[in-house]
Design a protein that fits this description.
Number of strands: 2
Strand order of the largest sheet: 1-2
Helix content: under 10%
Radius of gyration: 20 Å
Largest sheet: 2 strands, antiparallel
Distance between the termini: 12 Å
Number of helices: 0
Strand content: 15-25%
Shape: extended
Length: 75
């Protein structure tokens, strides 16, 4: 399987904009342990892509699902 490290071209205009500023849980805050160590290093970006093929196998009609997760640009 070849690996293509380039960022995919996705037209974001195709996706409906959502307002994620409100939560169904109200104004909650995550409790952090008082003895938690400080974060070190740089942040990272994690992306996961999923694809499925419902009953796509022509002989057995089995479905297939695949996914790949990238941490920064590495799978």
């Amino acid at each position: 399987m070849p690996y293509d490290p380039t960022e995919p071209e996705i037209d974001e205009a195709l996706f409906e904009r959502q307002d994620w500023t409100q939560s169904i849980y109200g104004d909650v805050k995550e409790e952090m342990p008082p003895n938690m160590p400080q974060a070190l290093g740089r942040g990272f970006r994690m992306r996961t892509y999923v694809d499925s093929d419902h009953a796509g196998e022509s002989l057995t009609r089995r479905s297939r699902t695949g996914f790949i997760t990238f941490l920064n640009r590495a799978p």
